[in-house]
Amino acid sequence: MSKTTEYPVHGAGLGYRRTLMDSLAGHRPSQIDFYEVAPENWINLGGATGRKFRAFSEQHDFVAHGLSLSIGSPEPLDFNFLKQLKKFLETHQIRYYSEHLSYCSDDGHLYDLMPIPFTEEAVQHVAARIRQVQEVLEQRIAMENVSYYARPSREMEEIDFLNAVIEEADCDLHLDVNNIYVNSINHQYDPYEFLSKMPGERIAYCHVAGHFEEAEDLRVDTHGADVIDPVWKLLEAAYQQFGVFPTLLERDFNIPPLPELLKEVDTIARLQAQYSALQDKQSVHA
Q1: Which of 30, 64, 69, 181 is least surrounded by CB atoms within 10 angstroms?
Q2: pLDDT tens digit sequence for 148-201
Q3: In a domain, 135, yes or no
Q4: Is residue 3 situated within a structural domain?
Q5: In a 3-state reduction of DSSP, which class is residue 14?
Q6: Boundaries of domain holding 120
Q7: Residue 222 within a domain
């Protein structure tokens, strides 16, 4: 399946974290093609840190992955935040914005990503809110398939809910292969079958990350460990099915020194080169 529109960025990416600022400023790795920030952590940030970020964002491609849009919440959208977000995206020339298909507020901030009920009513509610956000920001956005640990009021399967929201909202998909793997263990389904049903033509970019093994049948999506082999294999399957798309290493906790992170970025780049070459070869012989 080939994508019908251009990707906002290309290649292999890395999450831009404050603990990495000095390392990246002193050593700008050639294998990193783009960076990602959570806008909530940088909006209205001034002082020396704000200036450093502005200088860095002027020289590199960035995408933004939000934390507090709370797209599935019963509470009204925060239009003040959306105005700040739009200004932030414009100021730093952020190439794309995505969020979690979840919610994190209900009469106050819940400080966690809560699962949206897999119901037709929720599909309509969430899709309408996504369309509103796209209108305010004047751009398409992507929704990320999230990890979750409970399934309240389930009337349909996760994949059917995800596809229905994206189709109804006419938005893009932010693919997270680690979340597919984590959910496949926690909710006992085949991750490859789930992947095969995703709308590959709507992929904007992808996350790959590590997680914590709490028990044999429980994984916790921490972004605090190295990516494991089954998740790399799932990424390979995605490249094979959908073609090579931009992919970012997401690491939020237990962040190792930059050279260690670059080894995993190198793995992304190697797989992208491998499957790009394979697809080029197949095209020649088609």
Answers
A1: 30
A2: 877 767 899 999 999 999 999 999 999 999 999 999 999 999 999 999 999 999
A3: yes
A4: no
A5: strand
A6: 12-285
A7: yes
